[in-house]
TrEMBL record:
Keywords: Coiled coil
Protein name: AAA family ATPase
Segments forming domain Rad50/SbcC-type AAA: 71-300
GO biological process, one term: double-strand break repair
GO terms for MF: ATP hydrolysis activity
Length: 705
């Protein structure tokens, strides 16, 4: 869908044309062609953990049986469901936290565990592409690197020195790099919100955004977060990104604009009140002082016979000073404009480079899809050819093969030519399935070609903007020629100042006082004129602009919900089915509202996740994330990585009936989606032993590493 920005702004302008101009409406709503950024179509990518390897040495302690033990631990994982069974406090959660550390740069390991581990290798795949994260924790400053390929030993590390994608020597820089990597791989971006500055001496409103660490909460489901469906206050933003519904980005950006305008409005109102109060106080003070000066000047006029009039010199001095300030201001304004234009040039070039990288990636995806389509077409054509062969003559003896012979041998399950048994050789192929896949690939190819075309067109537009702004910079350079040289004016000012000082030295004390009063009076009159004539800036029209943004957000939200109804309905149905498979038959419906709030119909009442019984929340939560993955697998919608890590799923509700239900569901997931997703489960429940084929069980009281 190509968003019609012109039609959108025209509709809103009709509502607000009495208060705002057309250009003002367009400026407020402009997001630099980002209205068509979102798409619910899946990238088709999945994240797979292949292996975790840990090297180190446990701390020395008199009271521990593991004191000083060497750590040389390696645990492989397979596609599908993997379960680690070990007692509580034996290291299951630490394995998952190592994965989190490697994939996000965020360390949540206990201090003693981190001290034990000197080196960690986490091998993972994105589709068929293999990567390795290497963490060196043996020194005060960490080293973290992402490498192409798969390795898990220090000896192999040197062989992969040329395969480094990026590396970092601090957690902060690694977090930024790994964030950018996964954002690019799964086409995520940072949905924003506003918050007060954390600095005590500042009252500013700043923007904050969801990072890859935030989105990772949709992968790692920790037992401590079991009472909330989506992690933290920004859970809905994670949900929106995982769905990828159209218009999500512009709704988010316009909401940020509205928040900032509300903040500026409140700040201006506060400033205006203070300004009015201060102006009133100054007005009274200046008027009183002006009255006193006039009285004193009258007294000097009476007693003074001789005078030296310095007023014209002061007037000339102030005029010259004003001219210098004016020319300096012009120069600064031109330079500021030039800097802003240069910043715009840099921004445009960055967008062009980002688009070009995305075009390159999409072309590779297009080539892959075309090859897959051609392979399927060839397979279908060959299958139809051989299924239509009809044997008329024996190639050995050239005798006729009659229909009676063929039918007779068909009933006997024998070949019409060699007379050998054909039992067990039937391999029915449903050609329609492959034709459907070919049609789906055609759609994918069309979408990829369209997206490549759109990005190319965007780059052309960016180039035009680049050229236009560059021309503006050249023009602004020429404007410096029209600015008067202030150095000569400064020389004149110094000469005039010498004359004034010379004349002041000639007057008698009373005349000197008079000149001081005249000068002060001139300043006071100027200040009074400024107060009485200056209009307090109230033209920002914040309320109207905020109302405009409210209307725009409402229209876009309605349109997003309308366009995403199909996706949300499918997700709701998937959630209901999974919840029923978990044994929660009391929930008859799942409803996802326009604001992405999820309601569960239970006993004919709609309740939120927080109001579901505590013993049922974990099952509803797993059903939610599993449904997001199924939405991608079955309907090609959404952006979930198809990886789930579930820590202690039986911690809150480990009754026998629940565990039996959980075992059945896990087996069902394994059989349905084992080759399309990966779920890593850590549990202390030994009743789950033997449920899954990919199982690693540790003996009672045995440590995982």
């Amino acid at each position: 869908m190509n968003f019609d920005f012109k039609k959108f702004t025209d509709e809103l302008y009709e509502e607000y044309k009495e208060q705002l101009t057309k250009s003002e409406v367009e400026e407020i709503l402009n997001l630099n062609d980002e209205y068509s950024r979102d798409t619910p179509m899946s990238t088709g990518k999945r994240l797979l953990i292949d292996k975790v390897t840990l090297l180190g040495e446990k701390g020395i302690s008199e009271n521990s049986d593991y004191s000083g033990a060497k750590i040389n631990f390696s645990l492989p994982f397979e596609s599908g469901l993997n379960i680690i069974i070990a007692d509580n406090l034996k290291g299951k959660s630490s394995i998952f936290k190592i994965i989190k550390y490697a994939l996000t740069g965020t360390n949540s390991l206990k201090d003693n565990i981190k001290k034990w581990i000197n080196h960690a290798f986490v091998n993972f795949s994105i589709n068929e592409k293999k990567y390795t994260v290497f963490l060196d924790l043996s020194k005060y400053r960490i080293y973290a690197g992402l490498f192409n390929g798969s390795f898990n030993s220090l000896d192999e590390l040197e062989n992969y020195s040329d395969e480094v994608v990026f590396d970092a020597s601090s957690e902060t820089s690694y977090q930024d790099l790994i964030n950018d990597f996964f954002f690019q791989q799964f086409t995520y971006y940072s949905l924003k919100w506003t918050q007060k500055s954390s600095q005590k001496d500042k009252d500013d409103l700043i923007e904050a955004g969801a990072s890859w660490k935030t989105y990772f909460k949709s992968i790692l489901l920790e037992s401590k977060d079991s009472t909330s469906l989506m992690y933290g206050d920004q859970g809905k933003k994670v949900f929106q990104m995982l769905l990828g519904l159209k218009l999500t980005y512009p709704i988010n950006r316009l909401t940020i604009k509205k928040d900032l305008l509300n903040y500026e409005k409140a700040k201006e109102q506060s400033f205006t009140e203070r300004q009015k109060k201060q102006e009133k106080q100054n007005l009274e003070k200046f008027q009183q002082r002006l009255t006193d000066i006039n009285i004193e000047l009258n007294e000097i006029q009476i007693i003074s016979k001789e005078k030296v009039n310095l007023a014209p010199l002061y007037i000339e001095y102030n005029s010259l000073l004003g001219l210098i300030q004016s020319e300096n201001k012009k120069s600064i304004e031109i330079e500021n404009v030039k800097q802003l234009k240069n910043k715009e040039l840099h921004s445009i070039k960055t967008k062009q480079q980002t688009n070009q990288s995305e075009i390159f990636r999409l072309k590779k995806e297009l080539e892959k899809a075309k090859k897959q389509s051609n392979d399927l077409k060839e397979f279908v054509d060959i299958g139809i050819l051989f299924s239509n062969l009809d044997i008329k003559y024996c190639p050995g003896c050239n005798h006729d093969v009659s229909e009676i012979q063929k039918q007779s041998r068909l009933h006997e399950h024998k070949c019409s030519l060699c007379n050998e048994s054909t039992i067990g050789n039937e391999d029915d192929v449903d050609i329609d399935v492959f034709k459907d896949k070919i049609e789906n690939l055609k759609i994918t190819i069309k979408n990829l070609e369209s997206e490549i075309c759109t990005l190319s067109e965007q780059n052309d537009i960016f180039q035009e903007k680049f050229n236009s702004i560059y021309s503006d910079i050249v023009s602004s350079e020429k404007m410096f020629d029209g600015i008067q040289d202030v150095s000569s004016l400064s020389d004149e000012l110094q000469e005039l100042e010498k004359i004034i000082n010379s004349e002041k030295s000639k007057v008698n004390p009373s005349d000197s006082r008079k000149e001081e009063l005249v000068s002060e009076k001139a300043v006071l009159n100027f200040q009074l004129q400024e107060i009485t004539s200056q209009e307090i800036i109230r033209g920002s029209n914040y309320a109207t602009k905020i109302n405009l943004l409210d209307s725009a957000i409402e229209k876009l939200s309605e349109r997003r919900f309308e366009l995403g109804t199909k996706v949300l309905d499918r997700l709701s149905e998937l959630m209901k089915n999974e919840i029923h498979d978990f044994g929660l038959t009391s929930i008859s419906e799942v409803l996802i509202k326009e604001n992405f709030e999820i309601y569960y119909k239970q006993d004919n009442e709609y309740v939120t996740f927080e109001n579901i019984a505590e013993g049922e929340q974990l099952r509803a939560k797993i059903a939610f994330y599993l449904s997001l993955i199924q939405l991608d697998i079955e309907f090609n919608f959404g952006r979930h990585t198809r990886l789930l890590i579930i820590d202690s799923p039986g911690k809150e509700e480990a009754d026998l009936k629940y565990l039996e239900g959980l075992a059945r569901v896990l087996q069902s997931i394994e059989s349905r989606y084992g080759d399309k997703l990966q779920i890593l489960i850590g549990t202390a429940e030994r009743k789950l032993s033997g449920v899954l084929k990919n199982q690693k069980e540790f003996a009672v009281d045995e440590y995982v590493f």
